């Protein structure tokens, strides 16, 4: 091993001598490089090697390269790169190859090699790296795309890029991203050829027998890719993505028309097709004279939106599905949210939106989240009766949805409806009890504000009987707070005493009672001890903070510090697992005054 390392170090001597001779590094720095390189080389030649050692070696060599680059710029010396940088770059590539041969599955290592080759202008090496990487990882489409892009953009080789895409499609015949990038590559190639032809014609050069094929220049290769792709992937979304790629290029009108015809002929059963066709009407050219005034522009926008809606109307007639109505409603909502100073356009958009929402609801095809938008529009326009009607209709349509019930009940509470109490009971019978907590919280909020204390207490007691632990615990906490705010300390303590044995119990229930006790003019330490002891019966095996707060309480003004030792002993006995270590470290901090 020592002989190999010595040989490797000796190979560095010519480049290090050059670095010293031309004044980029001092003699001391060269010695330091040799010492560090020797240590790194030894690590690479051990019987059991680590990936981290290879990475450290590569990083050190790259740091040396960066330093050489900075020193060259500083002293304005740009000669002898073949004798100085090239051996270092060759050595780094060699170490990368050894690392990737040993850890073939590490994609990040391969990509690091690619990034190095790109930065240090060894483009010829990149193709070899990609070739070796794809032989190991042919199952990763992103790597094929990356390799093809490298051939096209960095090496200017459309033929190699095409060859890579075709190979990628053998492994991934149904991959959308590969087809999209292949389609884009053919169009980029076509654009490059068109630019070349234009420049040659401008220069009036004689091309001899060489001719630019009209079919290739018009994008026929991209059309071939499109036909092959849509033969395997029959999805409107995919076709639209290819159409959007084609629209980036200014010479693809024929290709775009062909894709549009295909879309309209074969994908009318997909809501995305109709959505795309409708939104295209917004891009139609407007009358130039009208666009001079704000009113004229608003009129032109309204006409475009009407044309969009005509397409949507045709769509919902032939394809009355939830996704289709969703596209229509979403379009109207997006237009309604757009700011305009023309009141007529605002009113027209709102009228259109309300009409579409009503018709979608009547067809039982309106999605849950759009009822919120519907109610907001009605409330902002002052239509109280309409909002109440929609709120009721939403709960009938989505009777098991907690969010719809919450929204509708909030709306009815806002409108001061007299049916709210009955509707809360109806809501709780329809929704899944495990998801009912928001409804209980809302009912308590409403009852406290609108009902008598007796009726509110009845709501709390119903909540306490819930079989869902989260609901029962939340009701206990809120009942305690409500008792304190309405009946003072005595009622609160009575409530706590009646509930403290009824499981399930939360830590917050006990800590709130402790807070209330401490808020009194003369807190009773015996009461605080009772609360802590009862809480520790429930949570003493896992909650180290509770024990710590109990100790801090005894150290306070009303406590007895001599009790702390007993509490600490009990804590160490009761706590389990990691909570023991946490308690010990926090208790030490408390004793030293750091907590």
SSE string, helices as H and strands as E: HHHHHHHHHHHHHHHHHHHHHHHHHHHHH
**In one word, what is the shape?**
flat
Low-confidence stretches: none
* Radius of gyration of CA atoms, rounded to a whole number: 38 Å
Number of helices: 29
Major sheet size, sense and barrel closure: none
Per DSSP E runs of 2 or more residues, the count of β-strands stands at 0
The average pLDDT is 88
Supply the helix-strand structural class: mainly alpha
Strand content: under 5%
Give the fraction of residues assigned to helices.
Answer: over 70%
What is the CA-CA span between the terminal residues? 56 Å
Could you please describe the fold and organization of this structure?
This protein is mainly alpha-helical. It is 76% helix and 0% strand. Helix 24 crosses helix 25 and helix 25 packs antiparallel against helix 26. The two termini are 56 Å apart. 27% of the residues are buried. It is found in: Nucleus, Nucleolus. Belongs to the UTP6 family.
Give the structure's gist in a few sentences.
One of its GO terms (biological process) is maturation of SSU-rRNA from tricistronic rRNA transcript (SSU-rRNA, 5.8S rRNA, LSU-rRNA). The protein is 76% helix and 0% strand. It has 595 residues and is mainly alpha-helical.
Write the topology of this structure:
Layout: H1 2-21, H2 27-44, H3 51-75, H4 81-102, H5 107-119, H6 123-136, H7 141-154, H8 158-171, H9 176-203, H10 214-217, H11 220-232, H12 236-247, H13 253-266, H14 271-280, H15 294-318, H16 322-337, H17 343-362, H18 370-380, H19 384-397, H20 402-415, H21 420-430, H22 437-450, H23 453-464, H24 469-499, H25 507-519, H26 525-539, H27 544-555, H28 564-574, H29 578-591
Helix pairs in contact: 1-2, 1-4, 2-3, 3-4, 4-5, 5-6, 6-7, 7-8, 7-9, 8-9, 9-11, 9-12, 12-13, 14-15, 14-16, 15-16, 16-17, 18-19, 19-20, 20-21, 20-22, 21-22, 22-23, 22-24, 23-24, 24-25, 25-26, 26-27, 27-28, 27-29
